[in-house]
Amino acid sequence: MSETGTAPGACSEQAGPLDAWLRDRRERREEAGLRRRLRTLPGRCVDLASNDYLGLSRDPGVVAAAAGALAEHGTGARASRLVTGTLGLHEHLERELCELTGQPAALAFSSGYAANTGVLTALGDADTLIVSDAHVHASLVDGARLSRSPVKIARHSDVAHVAQLLEERSEARAVVIVESVYSVWGDHAPLAELAEVCRAQDALLLVDEAHGIGVAGRGRGLVHGLGLAGSPHVAMTVTLSKALGAQGGAVLGSPALREHLVNTARPFIFDTALAPTSAAAAAEAARIVRTSPELTEALHQRARLVASTLGIPRADAAVQSVPVATPELAVRAAELLRSRGVAVGCFRPPSVPDGISRLRITAPANMELHELSAVLEVVREVLGDVAQAG
Ligand SMILES: Cc1ncc(COP(=O)(O)O)c(C=O)c1O
Fold first, then answer.
1. Catalytic annotation present for 242
2. CB-based burial of residue 350 (10 Å sphere; 0-12 exposed, 13-18 middle, 19+ buried)?
3. What average pLDDT does this structure show over 1-10?
4. What keywords is this UniProt entry annotated with (predicted)?
């Protein structure tokens, strides 16, 4: 493969029907400093960019669970869950997720993206208002759009605005969508207040715990931490690909919600079941998170070190974000860091809710504190150089 990912010998001389338009779009992205490129992570890089917050993707027990599933079931689930794809491993995973989060029922999907689009398209219709926080992840935005529901956007974490939109509604039903821990800013949603508003307005609060599981509520998520697990007005989604170190997603809530999803969620019905290795790995990771709260504490210790070294005010989230003046400077800082062996996330529009580009820094629970300190000094130096040059 060449650098651009084009196979050698591929016929590239003939003009395709969209070539001029594709070139124009690429040039516009380039001019705005918003062109993205796929790059492999060199083996020698320190990874402060991934979402494997607890380092569980390489935990020996998690790897052994995946290896056992591989030996027993092979590499794929071979069919959708409703055909022959349901394995005991999926049911085991769903039980472990219920144990971890305190929710009564769970349904696994092949990604967090599929879980979010699945639950929203299954719940939405013309008589169901979706009230969406302004900062929710693209998978929730897409799910809301695909659901054909009327959608209203509430100002970020503004409980009074959510209450107002619910009060004014003419639709019979309503679903409020938020993240427990927001993926870019790392801030917590006011879940207790939102749950109360939803209870009063007979709406369902759907909480995406993608960045809450393994991180908030002693690892069991913010919903559990606030005593909201099992409440009839609260349901949640998770991804298995972040703190659980595997791949996949799930929707958790009442048995009636699960039954509805099995019968109506298109990304569940028309999708091959989650791979056995991912299901087994995520189940073991969920068990470890539930039984080892010290792992989450180690993560917070590292997050506090990131925050204090880089002067970030928020210290209680796994995700630490450093604002950078322009997208170009953010890319420059990330590239300089990569050349010095440190990978950090680089978030630019449209992936940032407020249009401010950022370096996104995470430090896994299993990284030695002295190693992290040394790496953070490099980050601080590069950020200083880039700010001066800008
Ligand atoms: C808040 C949030 N929800 C959902 C997802 C999608 O999860 P997955 O990567 O498992 O598809 C992500 C991943 O980036 C996320 O950050």
1. yes
2. exposed
3. 49
4. Biotin biosynthesis, Pyridoxal phosphate, Transferase
- pLDDT at residue 88 greater than cutoff 90: yes
Q: How far is the CA of 20 from the centre of ligand 1 (A)?
A: 33
CATH topology of domain 59-291: Aspartate Aminotransferase; domain 2 (3.40.640)
As a whole number of Å, the end-to-end CA separation of the chain is 36
Instruction: Check if 161 is active-site.
Output: no
Determine contact, residues 362/319, Cβ cutoff 8 Å: yes
Atom of ligand 1 nearest to the CA of 179: 1
pLDDT tier at 111 (50, 70, 90 boundaries)?
A: very high
Model pLDDT for residues 15-52, shown as the tens digit of each residue: 899 999 999 999 999 888 788 888 887 777 899 999 99
The CB of 212 under 6 Å from ligand 1? The reply is no
Side-chain-side CA neighbours of 251 within 13 Å: the count stands at 31
183 is catalytic: yes
Asked if the domains at 59-291 and 293-389 fall in one CATH topology, the answer is: no
Q: Where are the domains of the chain?
A: 59-291, 293-389
Residue 180: both structure tokens together: 């427990």
How many A from CA of 352 to the centre of ligand 1? 14
pLDDT at 12: 62
Q: Give the residue, 288 or 324, on which the prediction is more confident.
A: 288
Compute, in angstroms, the gap from residue 278 CA to the centroid of ligand 1. 16
**CATH code, 293-389:** 3.90.1150.10
